[in-house]
Every structure is written in structure tokens, then in C-alpha cells.
Amino acid sequence: MGLKKNIDLNVQFPMPIAIVGTMFQGKPNFSTIAWMTRVNADPPMLGFAISKHRLTGDAVLLNKEFSVNIPGKNLTRETDYVGMVSAKRTDKSHVFEYTFGNQKKSPLIEGAPLNLECKLVEKIILPSNLWIVGEITNVWCDPDLMTEGSPDYGKMKSMILTMPDNKYRTIGKEFADAWKINSL
Ligand SMILES: Cc1cc2nc3c(=O)[nH]c(=O)nc-3n(C[C@H](O)[C@H](O)[C@H](O)COP(=O)(O)O)c2cc1C
């Protein structure tokens, strides 16, 4: 591989930050998740990897539904906190103002500009994590943070995580259009 170095296997790519919302024992719980991506186009589905130690995984399997909330950088402190503390030991139900959409066990964070309601469709058991697949059943977006009818992640100041430096970042400046170049 020329001058490239062979590095640690535990490599991470830049990751969008989401907060998964569940209900457990009558209370909402929120946990930060970075290992998340869209996995199916039609119907729209997303997947995320949750460690088997997290209460969030248990709650998703129990309720068969969950929310995905995309915070802006104004929620950095709260986002970091709900990613450090487990509801197994500490009640996180008061960290965010929340409401419900159509699903009654998928609490939606009021202060997050984008909220998705999801139904569990699949779980894959991996050695240390569960891969949870959810179908997106409803999406709610702050109209002030949209451009031409779609979420505008620049306006939202949505967060990206990089590792191993463990930094939150906002998305950078656009520099080219995608889906433009069809010959070289
Ligand atoms: C920035 C950040 C990203 C995280 N991403 C994930 C993730 O993708 N998967 C996961 O299992 N835990 C992730 N965590 C850790 C959980 O959010 C954390 O363990 C949380 O306390 C779990 O709470 P719970 O037991 O109430 O579900 C992340 C934490 C932070 C701070």
C-alpha cells in the first residue's frame, strides 16, 4: 500500500449525532447515538448499533418503537450528558422538554429541530451490539429551519462526531453539487 500506514482496526468515520427516545417504566429516556444511518429507501428505514449494555436497546425491543431526534449545537451539553449517563442508574426524563406525535412510546424532544417516529422492524444480534432497524412512520421538522420544504442541516447546526479526537463539529461549508458529474 505504498506509503500508507497499517493502523488500528477500530477506525471510525465522521458520524451524525442523533438522540434516541424511548419509554421505560412509564418514563421517557434519551440516549445519544452516533452509529446510525438510513438502510432502506422504500419504505424509508434507518438502522443504529446499540451496545447490549444500554437500557435503550431493551426499551426498543420491549416497546417495538422509538424516536430519533436530531439536535442542534445549542443542545450540546444535554446531548453529551444523555450519552454518558444510563437510565439504569439515573433518571434522564427531565433533561429535555418532550411531546408525542402519533406513537405513544416515542418521546419527541421539543428543542431538537427534527424528530422521527420509528417502528421496530428488525434486530440483528452482533457480538457486542444490536443492530436495530426501524421504519420511519412520521417526520416532524421546525419550519424555520427548512429550505424548499426539506430539513436544512446547516440552518439546524446539526452535529457531527469525529473520533478518536472525540469532538463535536457542525457541518462545514458546501463546496460542490452532488449528482452532477456523469462523465470525466
Ligand atoms: C457522542 C456519543 C455517541 C454515542 N453513540 C453511541 C452509539 O452509537 N451506540 C451506543 O450503544 N452508545 C452510544 N453512546 C453511548 C450511550 O449514549 C450511553 O452509554 C448512554 O448512557 C446509554 O444510556 P441508556 O443506558 O439509558 O440507554 C454514545 C455516547 C456519546 C456521548
Task: Please provide a written account of the structure.
The protein contains three helices and 14 strands. The model has no long low-confidence stretch (mean pLDDT 97). Strands 3-2-6-9-10-5-4 form a seven-stranded antiparallel β-sheet. A three-stranded antiparallel β-sheet has the order 1-13-14, with no helix packed on it. Strands 7-8 form a two-stranded antiparallel sheet. It is mostly beta strands and 184 residues long. Bound molecules: flavin mononucleotide (FMN). Flavin mononucleotide binds at residues 29, 31-35, 49-51, 54-56, 80, 83-88, 161. Flavin mononucleotide is lined by residues 29, 31-35, 49-51, 54-56, 80, 83-88, 161.
List the helices and strands and how they pair.
Elements: E1 15-16, E2 18-24, E3 27-33, E4 36-40, E5 45-51, H1 55-63, E6 65-70, H2 76-82, E7 98-99, E8 108-109, E9 114-125, E10 129-141, E11 146-147, E12 150-151, H3 153-156, E13 159-162, E14 167-170
Antiparallel strand pairs: 1-13, 2-3, 2-6, 4-5, 5-10, 6-9, 7-8, 9-10, 11-12, 13-14
Bound molecules: flavin mononucleotide.
